[in-house]
Amino acid sequence: MKIAVLGHGTVGSGVCEILWNKKSEVSSAAGNPLELGYVLDIKEPEGVPYSEKFKKDFSAVLSDPEVGIVAECIGGLEPAYSYIKAALENGKSAVTSNKELVAEKGAELLSIARAHNVNFLFEASVGGGIPLIRPLYSAMNAAGITEIAGILNGTTNYILTKMFRFGEDYSSALSGAQKLGYAERDPSADVLGWDSCRKISILSSLVWGKTLKPSEIPTEGIDMITAEDVKTAEQCGFSIKLLARAKILENGKIFAKVSPALVGSDSPLAAVNDVFNAVLVKAETTGEVLFYGKGAGKMPTASSVIADIIECAKTEGSIKSVFWEDGAQTAAEKDSVSERYFIRTDSDVSALLPDAEKLFDFVYITSPLSASEISVLEEKINEHGKLLSKIPLFE
Ligand code: HSE
Protein backbone atom coordinates (compact mmCIF):
# COMPACT_ATOMS: atom_id res chain seq x y z
CA MET A 1 0.00 0.00 0.00
CA LYS A 2 1.27 3.48 -0.84
CA ILE A 3 1.23 6.29 1.70
CA ALA A 4 0.93 9.89 0.52
CA VAL A 5 2.40 12.51 2.83
CA LEU A 6 0.87 15.96 2.34
CA GLY A 7 3.26 18.72 3.44
CA HIS A 8 7.02 18.37 3.86
CA GLY A 9 7.47 20.76 6.81
CA THR A 10 8.68 19.82 10.29
CA VAL A 11 6.25 16.96 10.91
CA GLY A 12 5.78 15.82 7.29
CA SER A 13 9.53 15.47 6.72
CA GLY A 14 9.77 13.38 9.93
CA VAL A 15 6.99 11.10 8.67
CA CYS A 16 8.77 10.70 5.31
CA GLU A 17 12.08 9.91 7.02
CA ILE A 18 10.51 7.18 9.13
CA LEU A 19 8.62 5.67 6.17
CA TRP A 20 11.79 5.77 4.06
CA ASN A 21 14.36 4.62 6.62
CA LYS A 22 12.22 2.18 8.57
CA LYS A 23 10.07 0.78 5.79
CA SER A 24 10.42 -2.84 6.89
CA GLU A 25 9.75 -2.13 10.58
CA VAL A 26 6.67 -0.04 9.76
CA SER A 27 5.41 -2.66 7.30
CA SER A 28 5.91 -5.45 9.77
CA ALA A 29 4.07 -3.50 12.52
CA ALA A 30 1.22 -2.91 10.05
CA GLY A 31 1.19 -6.51 8.85
CA ASN A 32 1.04 -5.07 5.34
CA PRO A 33 3.82 -3.79 3.03
CA LEU A 34 3.75 0.02 3.23
CA GLU A 35 5.81 2.44 1.18
CA LEU A 36 6.19 6.18 0.77
CA GLY A 37 4.25 6.76 -2.46
CA TYR A 38 3.99 10.53 -2.75
CA VAL A 39 5.12 13.69 -1.00
CA LEU A 40 2.90 16.65 -1.84
CA ASP A 41 4.57 20.04 -1.38
CA ILE A 42 4.80 23.27 -3.33
CA LYS A 43 8.53 23.47 -2.52
CA GLU A 44 11.18 21.62 -4.50
CA PRO A 45 12.80 18.69 -2.65
CA GLU A 46 16.19 19.52 -1.15
CA GLY A 47 18.76 16.85 -0.26
CA VAL A 48 16.34 14.01 0.47
CA PRO A 49 16.74 10.46 -0.88
CA TYR A 50 13.06 10.27 -1.85
CA SER A 51 13.01 13.34 -4.11
CA GLU A 52 11.37 11.42 -7.00
CA LYS A 53 8.25 11.03 -4.82
CA PHE A 54 7.52 14.77 -4.79
CA LYS A 55 4.40 16.04 -6.56
CA LYS A 56 2.68 19.43 -6.57
CA ASP A 57 -0.73 18.27 -7.72
CA PHE A 58 -3.05 16.46 -5.31
CA SER A 59 -5.00 14.84 -8.15
CA ALA A 60 -2.04 12.48 -8.76
CA VAL A 61 -2.49 11.19 -5.18
CA LEU A 62 -6.24 10.97 -5.44
CA SER A 63 -6.32 9.09 -8.71
CA ASP A 64 -3.77 6.43 -7.71
CA PRO A 65 -5.73 3.40 -6.41
CA GLU A 66 -2.61 2.06 -4.67
CA VAL A 67 -2.66 5.00 -2.24
CA GLY A 68 -4.56 3.66 0.78
CA ILE A 69 -3.62 6.28 3.38
CA VAL A 70 -3.09 10.02 3.20
CA ALA A 71 -1.04 11.62 6.00
CA GLU A 72 -1.87 15.33 6.19
CA CYS A 73 0.88 17.45 7.78
CA ILE A 74 0.24 20.78 6.05
CA GLY A 75 -1.52 22.52 8.95
CA GLY A 76 -4.28 25.16 8.79
CA LEU A 77 -7.79 24.68 7.43
CA GLU A 78 -7.23 24.91 3.69
CA PRO A 79 -6.21 23.10 1.58
CA ALA A 80 -5.90 20.43 4.31
CA TYR A 81 -9.69 20.14 4.76
CA SER A 82 -10.45 19.78 1.03
CA TYR A 83 -7.66 17.23 0.53
CA ILE A 84 -8.72 15.05 3.48
CA LYS A 85 -12.39 15.23 2.54
CA ALA A 86 -11.61 14.20 -1.04
CA ALA A 87 -9.33 11.37 0.14
CA LEU A 88 -12.01 9.96 2.49
CA GLU A 89 -14.70 10.25 -0.17
CA ASN A 90 -12.44 8.33 -2.52
CA GLY A 91 -12.06 5.45 -0.06
CA LYS A 92 -8.65 6.38 1.34
CA SER A 93 -8.03 6.59 5.09
CA ALA A 94 -6.56 9.83 6.40
CA VAL A 95 -4.40 10.71 9.38
CA THR A 96 -3.42 14.17 10.50
CA SER A 97 -1.36 16.19 12.96
CA ASN A 98 -3.53 19.26 12.28
CA LYS A 99 -5.28 20.40 15.46
CA GLU A 100 -7.01 23.38 13.87
CA LEU A 101 -8.61 21.09 11.32
CA VAL A 102 -9.67 18.45 13.87
CA ALA A 103 -11.05 21.05 16.30
CA GLU A 104 -13.10 22.79 13.60
CA LYS A 105 -14.03 19.96 11.22
CA GLY A 106 -13.44 16.77 13.23
CA ALA A 107 -17.07 15.62 13.55
CA GLU A 108 -17.77 16.16 9.86
CA LEU A 109 -14.63 14.33 8.71
CA LEU A 110 -15.26 11.46 11.13
CA SER A 111 -18.72 11.05 9.75
CA ILE A 112 -17.51 11.13 6.11
CA ALA A 113 -14.91 8.50 7.04
CA ARG A 114 -17.63 6.27 8.53
CA ALA A 115 -19.84 6.66 5.49
CA HIS A 116 -16.99 5.47 3.25
CA ASN A 117 -15.81 2.67 5.54
CA VAL A 118 -12.37 4.21 6.07
CA ASN A 119 -10.59 5.72 9.04
CA PHE A 120 -9.76 9.27 10.08
CA LEU A 121 -7.20 9.34 12.92
CA PHE A 122 -5.43 12.26 14.60
CA GLU A 123 -3.21 11.01 17.44
CA ALA A 124 -0.56 13.63 16.58
CA SER A 125 -2.97 16.55 16.89
CA VAL A 126 -2.76 16.69 20.71
CA GLY A 127 0.27 16.04 22.90
CA GLY A 128 2.84 15.50 20.09
CA GLY A 129 4.48 12.15 20.81
CA ILE A 130 2.29 11.22 23.78
CA PRO A 131 -0.10 8.35 23.02
CA LEU A 132 -3.20 10.14 24.27
CA ILE A 133 -6.16 10.09 21.87
CA ARG A 134 -6.32 6.31 21.56
CA PRO A 135 -5.97 5.56 25.29
CA LEU A 136 -8.59 8.19 26.13
CA TYR A 137 -10.98 6.83 23.54
CA SER A 138 -10.40 3.12 24.09
CA ALA A 139 -8.80 2.26 27.44
CA MET A 140 -10.66 5.01 29.32
CA ASN A 141 -13.85 4.96 27.28
CA ALA A 142 -15.98 3.57 30.10
CA ALA A 143 -14.01 5.08 32.97
CA GLY A 144 -16.39 8.02 33.41
CA ILE A 145 -13.98 10.87 32.70
CA THR A 146 -15.00 13.95 34.67
CA GLU A 147 -12.11 16.33 34.18
CA ILE A 148 -9.03 16.97 32.02
CA ALA A 149 -6.26 19.45 32.80
CA GLY A 150 -3.18 19.71 30.73
CA ILE A 151 -0.12 21.55 29.63
CA LEU A 152 -0.88 21.14 25.94
CA ASN A 153 1.50 23.55 24.25
CA GLY A 154 5.20 22.78 24.02
CA THR A 155 6.26 26.21 22.79
CA THR A 156 4.81 28.18 25.69
CA ASN A 157 6.05 25.66 28.25
CA TYR A 158 9.52 25.90 26.67
CA ILE A 159 9.35 29.73 26.75
CA LEU A 160 8.16 29.81 30.39
CA THR A 161 10.97 27.41 31.36
CA LYS A 162 13.72 29.30 29.48
CA MET A 163 12.59 32.74 30.62
CA PHE A 164 11.86 32.11 34.21
CA ARG A 165 14.27 29.33 35.11
CA PHE A 166 17.19 30.33 32.95
CA GLY A 167 16.63 34.09 32.65
CA GLU A 168 16.45 34.19 28.82
CA ASP A 169 14.56 37.07 27.27
CA TYR A 170 11.27 36.45 25.48
CA SER A 171 12.48 36.84 21.91
CA SER A 172 15.46 34.53 22.37
CA ALA A 173 13.26 31.89 24.07
CA LEU A 174 10.71 32.14 21.24
CA SER A 175 13.37 31.93 18.57
CA GLY A 176 14.78 28.80 20.32
CA ALA A 177 11.30 27.22 20.14
CA GLN A 178 11.06 28.13 16.45
CA LYS A 179 14.50 26.69 15.64
CA LEU A 180 13.61 23.45 17.37
CA GLY A 181 10.44 23.17 15.26
CA TYR A 182 8.05 23.55 18.19
CA ALA A 183 6.28 26.81 17.32
CA GLU A 184 3.40 27.30 14.89
CA ARG A 185 4.10 29.17 11.64
CA ASP A 186 2.47 32.14 13.35
CA PRO A 187 3.71 31.73 16.94
CA SER A 188 0.97 33.98 18.29
CA ALA A 189 -1.23 30.85 18.06
CA ASP A 190 1.02 29.36 20.74
CA VAL A 191 1.63 32.44 22.88
CA LEU A 192 -1.98 33.65 22.94
CA GLY A 193 -3.31 30.19 23.86
CA TRP A 194 -5.18 29.33 20.63
CA ASP A 195 -3.20 26.16 20.04
CA SER A 196 -4.02 24.92 23.57
CA CYS A 197 -7.64 25.96 22.99
CA ARG A 198 -7.89 23.83 19.83
CA LYS A 199 -6.35 20.89 21.67
CA ILE A 200 -8.70 21.02 24.68
CA SER A 201 -11.58 21.40 22.22
CA ILE A 202 -10.50 18.11 20.58
CA LEU A 203 -10.12 16.31 23.91
CA SER A 204 -13.50 17.55 25.22
CA SER A 205 -15.29 16.57 22.00
CA LEU A 206 -13.65 13.16 22.05
CA VAL A 207 -14.26 12.40 25.71
CA TRP A 208 -17.80 13.76 26.05
CA GLY A 209 -19.00 12.83 22.57
CA LYS A 210 -20.06 16.15 21.02
CA THR A 211 -18.19 18.99 19.38
CA LEU A 212 -17.05 21.73 21.76
CA LYS A 213 -15.94 24.46 19.35
CA PRO A 214 -12.78 26.46 20.15
CA SER A 215 -14.89 29.64 19.93
CA GLU A 216 -16.83 28.45 23.03
CA ILE A 217 -13.69 28.26 25.16
CA PRO A 218 -12.44 31.40 26.97
CA THR A 219 -8.75 31.64 26.15
CA GLU A 220 -5.83 33.64 27.55
CA GLY A 221 -2.16 33.14 26.71
CA ILE A 222 1.12 33.80 28.48
CA ASP A 223 1.66 37.27 27.03
CA MET A 224 0.69 39.08 30.26
CA ILE A 225 2.83 36.96 32.61
CA THR A 226 5.76 38.85 34.11
CA ALA A 227 8.98 37.77 35.80
CA GLU A 228 7.60 39.35 38.99
CA ASP A 229 4.52 37.08 38.83
CA VAL A 230 6.69 33.99 38.45
CA LYS A 231 9.10 35.01 41.21
CA THR A 232 6.33 35.83 43.67
CA ALA A 233 4.39 32.67 42.81
CA GLU A 234 7.51 30.57 43.34
CA GLN A 235 8.16 32.21 46.72
CA CYS A 236 4.66 31.05 47.67
CA GLY A 237 5.29 27.47 46.46
CA PHE A 238 3.62 27.64 43.04
CA SER A 239 4.67 27.34 39.40
CA ILE A 240 2.89 29.23 36.64
CA LYS A 241 1.81 27.04 33.70
CA LEU A 242 -0.42 27.62 30.69
CA LEU A 243 -3.24 25.17 31.48
CA ALA A 244 -6.06 23.94 29.28
CA ARG A 245 -8.89 22.61 31.39
CA ALA A 246 -12.28 21.03 30.85
CA LYS A 247 -14.75 19.39 33.18
CA ILE A 248 -18.25 18.08 32.89
CA LEU A 249 -20.72 19.71 35.29
CA GLU A 250 -23.75 18.10 36.91
CA ASN A 251 -26.05 19.71 34.31
CA GLY A 252 -24.07 17.91 31.57
CA LYS A 253 -22.49 21.10 30.22
CA ILE A 254 -18.76 21.42 29.76
CA PHE A 255 -16.78 24.07 31.58
CA ALA A 256 -13.57 24.68 29.66
CA LYS A 257 -10.92 27.36 29.67
CA VAL A 258 -7.32 28.08 28.71
CA SER A 259 -5.30 30.41 30.89
CA PRO A 260 -2.12 30.66 32.89
CA ALA A 261 -2.69 29.01 36.27
CA LEU A 262 -0.82 28.60 39.54
CA VAL A 263 0.09 24.98 40.12
CA GLY A 264 1.16 23.87 43.61
CA SER A 265 4.59 22.25 43.92
CA ASP A 266 2.92 18.99 45.00
CA SER A 267 1.06 18.70 41.65
CA PRO A 268 2.66 16.48 38.99
CA LEU A 269 2.05 19.33 36.51
CA ALA A 270 4.51 21.57 38.41
CA ALA A 271 7.44 19.41 37.30
CA VAL A 272 6.56 19.56 33.60
CA ASN A 273 9.15 21.77 31.92
CA ASP A 274 10.65 22.61 28.56
CA VAL A 275 8.80 21.15 25.53
CA PHE A 276 7.11 18.49 27.65
CA ASN A 277 3.33 18.27 27.85
CA ALA A 278 1.29 16.50 30.50
CA VAL A 279 -2.38 15.72 30.70
CA LEU A 280 -4.03 14.87 33.99
CA VAL A 281 -7.29 12.98 33.50
CA LYS A 282 -9.74 12.38 36.35
CA ALA A 283 -12.23 9.57 35.97
CA GLU A 284 -14.77 7.91 38.24
CA THR A 285 -13.26 4.45 38.12
CA THR A 286 -9.55 5.13 37.70
CA GLY A 287 -9.05 8.27 39.76
CA GLU A 288 -6.21 10.39 38.36
CA VAL A 289 -4.23 9.22 35.31
CA LEU A 290 -1.26 11.21 34.02
CA PHE A 291 0.05 11.25 30.45
CA TYR A 292 3.49 12.82 29.96
CA GLY A 293 5.92 13.27 27.06
CA LYS A 294 7.26 15.59 24.38
CA GLY A 295 4.38 17.69 23.12
CA ALA A 296 5.97 19.13 19.98
CA GLY A 297 8.89 18.64 17.64
CA LYS A 298 9.59 16.73 14.46
CA MET A 299 10.20 13.13 15.51
CA PRO A 300 7.85 12.82 18.53
CA THR A 301 4.96 14.18 16.45
CA ALA A 302 5.92 12.16 13.36
CA SER A 303 5.95 9.05 15.55
CA SER A 304 2.27 9.62 16.42
CA VAL A 305 1.42 10.09 12.72
CA ILE A 306 3.19 6.81 11.94
CA ALA A 307 1.24 5.07 14.73
CA ASP A 308 -1.99 6.18 13.05
CA ILE A 309 -0.75 5.03 9.62
CA ILE A 310 -0.02 1.61 11.10
CA GLU A 311 -3.46 1.53 12.77
CA CYS A 312 -5.19 2.40 9.49
CA ALA A 313 -3.25 -0.25 7.59
CA LYS A 314 -3.97 -2.88 10.25
CA THR A 315 -7.67 -2.17 10.25
CA GLU A 316 -8.13 -1.73 6.49
CA GLY A 317 -11.75 -2.32 5.52
CA SER A 318 -13.15 -1.80 9.02
CA ILE A 319 -13.83 1.37 10.92
CA LYS A 320 -11.68 1.88 13.99
CA SER A 321 -11.97 5.64 14.05
CA VAL A 322 -12.72 7.41 17.23
CA PHE A 323 -15.98 9.28 16.89
CA TRP A 324 -18.02 12.18 18.18
CA GLU A 325 -21.35 13.63 17.13
CA ASP A 326 -21.70 16.56 14.80
CA GLY A 327 -24.03 18.38 17.23
CA ALA A 328 -22.36 21.42 18.72
CA GLN A 329 -22.22 21.55 22.47
CA THR A 330 -22.64 24.83 24.30
CA ALA A 331 -20.10 25.56 26.96
CA ALA A 332 -21.21 25.98 30.56
CA GLU A 333 -22.16 29.50 31.66
CA LYS A 334 -19.04 31.43 32.61
CA ASP A 335 -20.11 31.74 36.24
CA SER A 336 -20.78 28.06 36.82
CA VAL A 337 -17.34 27.44 38.33
CA SER A 338 -15.62 29.45 41.06
CA GLU A 339 -11.86 29.50 41.54
CA ARG A 340 -9.39 31.03 43.94
CA TYR A 341 -7.12 33.66 42.41
CA PHE A 342 -3.57 34.82 43.04
CA ILE A 343 -3.76 38.61 43.10
CA ARG A 344 -0.89 41.09 42.95
CA THR A 345 -1.58 44.79 43.40
CA ASP A 346 0.46 47.98 43.70
CA SER A 347 -1.05 48.99 47.04
CA ASP A 348 -2.77 47.63 50.14
CA VAL A 349 -6.27 46.45 49.15
CA SER A 350 -6.83 44.20 52.19
CA ALA A 351 -10.07 46.06 52.99
CA LEU A 352 -11.53 44.87 49.66
CA LEU A 353 -10.52 41.27 50.29
CA PRO A 354 -11.90 40.34 53.72
CA ASP A 355 -11.84 36.59 52.92
CA ALA A 356 -8.47 36.52 51.17
CA GLU A 357 -5.25 35.02 52.46
CA LYS A 358 -2.49 37.62 52.50
CA LEU A 359 0.80 36.06 51.34
CA PHE A 360 3.04 39.13 51.26
CA ASP A 361 2.42 42.85 51.09
CA PHE A 362 0.10 43.40 48.10
CA VAL A 363 -0.06 39.66 47.29
CA TYR A 364 -3.20 37.70 48.10
CA ILE A 365 -5.04 34.45 47.40
CA THR A 366 -8.77 35.16 47.18
CA SER A 367 -11.63 32.97 48.29
CA PRO A 368 -13.38 31.11 45.40
CA LEU A 369 -14.80 33.63 42.93
CA SER A 370 -16.82 33.26 39.74
CA ALA A 371 -15.74 34.99 36.50
CA SER A 372 -18.17 37.86 37.16
CA GLU A 373 -17.06 38.23 40.78
CA ILE A 374 -13.37 38.48 39.84
CA SER A 375 -14.25 41.13 37.22
CA VAL A 376 -16.11 43.19 39.82
CA LEU A 377 -13.20 42.82 42.23
CA GLU A 378 -10.78 43.91 39.52
CA GLU A 379 -12.79 47.09 38.92
CA LYS A 380 -12.89 47.89 42.66
CA ILE A 381 -9.14 47.31 43.07
CA ASN A 382 -8.42 49.56 40.10
CA GLU A 383 -10.46 52.35 41.70
CA HIS A 384 -8.03 52.28 44.66
CA GLY A 385 -4.79 51.42 42.91
CA LYS A 386 -3.78 48.96 40.24
CA LEU A 387 -4.35 45.24 39.88
CA LEU A 388 -1.05 43.92 38.49
CA SER A 389 -2.04 40.27 38.06
CA LYS A 390 -4.88 37.85 38.63
CA ILE A 391 -4.11 34.22 37.95
CA PRO A 392 -6.43 31.34 38.91
CA LEU A 393 -5.16 28.49 41.11
CA PHE A 394 -5.35 24.97 39.73
CA GLU A 395 -6.69 22.83 42.60
N1 HSE B 1 3.09 24.57 18.36
C1 HSE B 1 2.67 23.37 18.97
C2 HSE B 1 3.25 23.30 20.37
C3 HSE B 1 3.13 22.20 18.15
O1 HSE B 1 4.17 24.08 20.65
O2 HSE B 1 2.79 22.53 21.19
C4 HSE B 1 2.57 20.88 18.57
O3 HSE B 1 1.18 20.84 18.43
Element layout with pairings:
Blueprint: E1 2-6, H1 10-21, H2 23-30, E2 35-40, E3 54-55, H3 58-63, E4 67-72, H4 80-89, E5 93-96, H5 99-115, E6 120-121, H6 133-137, E7 145-151, H7 154-166, H8 170-179, H9 188-191, H10 194-208, E8 210-211, H11 227-235, E9 238-248, E10 254-264, E11 276-283, E12 287-294, H12 298-314, E13 325-328, E14 341-345, E15 357-360, E16 363-365, H13 371-384, E17 387-394
Helix pairs in contact: 1-12, 2-12, 4-5, 5-10, 7-8
The chain binds L-homoserine (HSE).
Overview of the molecule:
- This protein is α/β, with parallel strands linked by helices.
- The protein is built from 13 helices and 17 strands.
- It has helices spanning 10-21, 23-30, 58-63, 80-89, 99-115, 133-137, 154-166, 170-179, 188-191, 194-208, 227-235, 298-314, 371-384; strands at 2-6, 35-40, 54-55, 67-72, 93-96, 120-121, 145-151, 210-211, 238-248, 254-264, 276-283, 287-294, 325-328, 341-345, 357-360, 363-365, 387-394.
- The strands form three sheets. A nine-stranded mixed beta sheet has the order 12-11-7-9-10-17-14-16-15, with helices on both faces. A six-stranded parallel beta sheet has the order 3-2-1-4-5-6, with helices on both faces.
- Strand 5 (93-96), helix 5 (99-115) and strand 6 form a beta-alpha-beta unit.
- Helix 2 packs across helix 12 (298-314) and helix 4 packs parallel to helix 5 (99-115).
- The longest helix has 17 residues, at 99-115.
- The N and C termini lie far apart (49 Å).
- The protein binds L-homoserine (HSE).
- The site of L-homoserine has 11 residues, from helix 7.
